[in-house]
Design brief:
Elements: H1 7-28, H2 30-33, H3 44-55, H4 58-61, H5 63-79, H6 84-102, H7 107-132, H8 139-171
Helix pairs in contact: 1-3, 3-5, 3-6, 3-7, 3-8, 5-6, 6-7, 7-8
Length: about 170
């Protein structure tokens, strides 16, 4: 008899894979992603959380707890600024889940909601860095050199993984 693996196991494994892929992609493709003056940051960790919010059962997956935990780990491992993504990740997941429930559940709605989520994520990160004095770039520089390229990269990544992740969650309904 074949045992069915719970979707929560796939979620946790996928979350850690996405987390480490964020750093690996950034490291191996740093010459392309971080070519002055532009910065493209892959947020596969957030992509995995948001897709889980779209297709999964947030209560069974403990989505907000996981988003805070992975935000804390993300802060410790990647940024060195403890506390920024601990609050931003759950907020972005909540906003995306809320808006996605209002819209018809399809790829275009997911694309729009993810666009909104990445915009909020990157903008709040920028505001936190301005607040603590870690950046001195202007808002115009941020919009053109960081937000726009980051949005473009992450929307391409969403386009690549949206349907396979949807199929994964569809085959493992809670």
């Amino acid at each position: 008899m074949k045992r069915k693996v719970p979707i929560a196991v796939y979620f946790v494994i996928g979350q850690f894979i996405a987390f480490f892929l964020d750093g690996s992609i950034s490291q191996t493709m740093s010459g392309i992603l971080f070519k002055y003056p532009n910065t493209m940051v892959p947020y596969l960790t957030v992509l995995w959380l948001i897709l889980a919010a779209f297709f999964g059962n947030g209560k069974k997956l403990h989505l907000y707890t996981w988003s805070a935990v992975i935000g804390f780990i993300f802060d410790m491992y990647y940024t060195g600024l403890l506390g920024v993504y601990v609050f931003i990740f759950p907020l972005v997941v909540y906003l995306c889940q809320l808006v996605y429930q209002i819209l018809p559940p399809n790829f275009m709605s997911g694309f729009l909601v993810y666009f909104l989520g990445i915009t909020v994520l990157v903008s709040l990160g920028y505001m936190a860095n301005v607040f603590i004095g870690e950046t001195d770039s202007s808002v115009a520089q941020f919009l053109v050199n960081t937000l726009a390229p980051t949005l473009a990269l992450n929307l391409v990544l969403l386009t690549i993984v949206y349907f396979p992740v949807e199929a994964l969650y569809r085959t493992h309904r809670q």
